[in-house]
Amino acid sequence: MYKQIEQYVDRILLESTPACPFWNIESIKQGKQPHWNYIDGCMLTSLLQLHKITGEQRYFEFVERFVDFYVFEDGKIRGYDKSAYNLDDVNEGKVLFELYKVTKKNKYKLAIDLLKSQLDEQPRTSTGNFWHKLIYPNQVWLDGLYMAQGFSALWQKSFGKHDYSDVVQQIVNVRKYMYDEDKKLFYHGWDCSREAFWCDKQTGLSANFWLRAMGWYLVAMADFLEVCDDPASRECVADVFRLAIDGISRYVDKDAHMLYQVIDCGEREGNYLETSGSSMTAYAMLKGARLGYLDAQYAVLGKQIFDGICQRYLSGENGELNLGGICLVAGLGPENNRRRDGSYEYYISEPIVQNDAKGVAPFVLCYTEIKQL
Question: Which residue from 223, 260, 228 is spatially nearest to 241, judged by alpha carbons?
Answer without folding.
Answer: 223
